[in-house]
Amino acid sequence: MRKTLIAGNWKMHGNLDSVESLISGIKGQLDDSWQCDILVCPPSIHIDKAVKLTKGSNIAVGAQNLSEQDQGAFTGEISGDMLKDIGSKYVLVGHSERRSLYHETNELVAAKYAKALEAGLIPVLCVGETLEQRENGSTLDVVKAQIDAVITFYQDKAEGLDKLGQCVIAYEPVWAIGTGVTASPEQAQDVHASIRQYLSDMNEAVAEKVQVLYGGSMKAANAEQLLAQKDIDGGLIGGASLKADEFIAICKIAG
């Protein structure tokens, strides 16, 4: 049985004071009876502080990005080992903003995915289509290609599927990120079910194991309907994760 995961992507927001205030606000409203997993992904410079502030709670901390390199003359980059060293448990790979603003290809995302696993991190593989791609009917082709890149990064398909089974997938329709527009529960479920079926056709055990989150303007007002869908295993929350009351309300709905 897959657990629900509620993950907050703080993007490039916050300072030391706001990080402390936000985590304190979340911790202060946690209920031990909730069964969902909770994850926060602050900017890399605040990960160490977030790890210290969440100690003793069931809140995991993750990073928003990592390098595809191990170490060396790569100014400004942060390796998976470095993230693991300061307490990260998860790392986002292939977020739509990394793909669109920084031109990360499917192949680069796959390389970063592999480095995350090598470092002992859990990759959150972000997949999703633009509005143009949705309107021309290529949503599933785009999503499958993004997933296939991870599988085919490994020369042996069985190994690639095994590696894919160690991740979380976040479906984030690009047209619904930060726009206030949300995919309807039916639209989101349709893609999630298609992802699950695509994985099942290759490896049923992987399909049953992998959590598939919805990421696209999820908030307390729409979380109940989205999380009620059979194949939606949680949410990758953007703006709503920066407000403790709003984020905790989603966690409460996830229960």
Automatic annotation (TrEMBL):
The gene is tpiA. GO terms for molecular function: triose-phosphate isomerase activity. It comes from the Bacteria. Its EC number is 5.3.1.1. The keyword Isomerase applies. HAMAP family: TIM_B. It comes from Kangiella spongicola. InterPro entries: Aldolase_TIM, TIM_sf, TrioseP_Isoase_bac/euk, Triosephosphate_isomerase, Triosephosphate_isomerase_AS. NCBIfam families: tim. It is found in: Cytoplasm. Substrate binds at residues 9-11, 178, 217, 238-239. Keywords: Cytoplasm, Gluconeogenesis, Glycolysis, Isomerase. It holds the Pfam family TIM. Involved in the gluconeogenesis. Catalyzes stereospecifically the conversion of dihydroxyacetone phosphate (DHAP) to D-glyceraldehyde-3-phosphate (G3P). Homodimer. The keyword Cytoplasm applies. The active site is at 95 (electrophile), 172 (proton acceptor). It catalyses: D-glyceraldehyde 3-phosphate = dihydroxyacetone phosphate. Pathway: Carbohydrate degradation; glycolysis; D-glyceraldehyde 3-phosphate from glycerone phosphate: step 1/1; Carbohydrate metabolism; erythritol degradation; Carbohydrate biosynthesis; gluconeogenesis. One of its GO terms (biological process) is glycolytic process. Belongs to the triosephosphate isomerase family. GO terms for cellular component: cytosol. This is Triosephosphate isomerase. Signal peptide: none annotated.
